[in-house]
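Risk mitigation, structural track. In case the binding assays with adenosine-5'-triphosphate fail to produce interpretable data, a predicted complex structure has been prepared as a fallback.
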Amino acid sequence: MDFIDDWPWTNIFKKCEKMKSPMAVQNIISSSEKMQKVVSLCKRRGFIYPSSEVYGGLNSCYDYGPLGYELKNNLKQNWMNWMTREHESIEPLDTSILMHPKIWEASGHVANFTDPLVDCKTCKARFRADQLDTAACGQRPSKHPNECGGELTEPRLFNLMFKTFMGPVEEGSSVVYLRPETAQGIYVNFLNVMTTSRQKLPFGIAQIGKAFRNEITPGNFTFRTREFEQMEMQYFVKPGTDMESFEYWKERRMQWHYSIGLTKERLRYHQHSAKELAHYAKAAFDIQYEFPFGWQEIEGIHHRSDFDLKQHEQFSGKKLQVFDEASKSSFVPYIIETSVGCDRVLLTLLVDAYDEEASTGGGAEEEGPRVVLRFAPHLAPMKIAILPLMKKEGLPERADKIYQALKKRYRIYYDESGSIGKRYRRADEAGVPFALTVDMEPGSVTIRQRDSMKQDRVSETELESYFEKAFQL
Ligand code: ATP
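Fallback model:
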């Protein structure tokens, strides 16, 4: 069992523990270096920790620390609000992780949710047979599979679903699966939601939840893990209107990625070729992001035809159809799916936001480059840093009064120790968009903007309206 995580990020985590300040570098950050820096920052500042760290870690499992939790929460809320408030035809849903095992027979996961697996007979490393070209062997110095002369086994199919048992007896009849995707919970509830929320076609159902895949080669930090969260929306449409809806959602989803602040030039579509398309799918596009390790999928937009509902009709014996008043007949709707990984987008946000600059002013008196996470303000885990200039002359009391007023509305980062330069640096690294300094000037404070480092003097009585405007931009 590969419980222990011996892959490179663990070493980076260990190294970063010894680091007092980020590695000294100039403006240009090489790709692999950038990834290492992001991983190091995640541990140092409490975004992401390796799971079960005191036991040496658990391969490909991660825990979100205080800042990571806030960022993830903001991301999930943003996605669900965007889905259900900007599109009135979309309803939210939260289904169970464990579902009737027949669901996975109907969906095709029991028979087909497999990857081809090969083992190296020499070092016992395991690879996906369809990804041998890009796979690296964990042995040092790292080689490609086969390069060491070690013979590979014949490929065998490996089902990616995690199995467990329901009830006290571990026997075949009580096997249940940890869901490998959240979509099936939506399909089997589609009539429930449609009738209880009085929706008519076209309408959608959005769900955020955990999914589990026993990936053969997880990796690239949280990019591919065995436990992850998905944010999926399934849109039910009348056949004939399906391609129009597919085009709409393809465009709309890209707009969402822009709206969370991702760099436009690093986003693109990848259309599935006939070879890549699932046999039932009419069309599919991925939205890809250019990570330091290459262009990779972050979201899939799939035209799933009526495959899923028809399969569930057949396996459950229940009709999953909609009555059409015009033709006085029933039909099975088509489904357009948008499926995005929450953890994967969170990693994308971190990579995209990470920046280093040899700055002047606003904390530049500190040594080394300024490390800054340039999150879009509405997603930033902490919104405002409050920094009393000194711990005397009534400044902490004034700062506390401001803190008490603002904390009702914003997640506040309060920091009163160390030089003001160091405190700006800490806030920049956590991605806090605004730093408010309470100084000797009575009745007003300075507000420093994270990205431009521009400083405004703002009257204490106008703080609420200042931030209201700032966070609307
Ligand atoms: P990939 O080709 O990367 O394995 P996929 O095509 O199997 O992904 P889907 O089944 O379409 O992915 O899942 C939708 C989304 O869920 C993906 O775009 C990705 O963001 C996320 N996702 C899928 N597998 C994982 C994983 N193992 N770890 C983290 N996120 C994942």
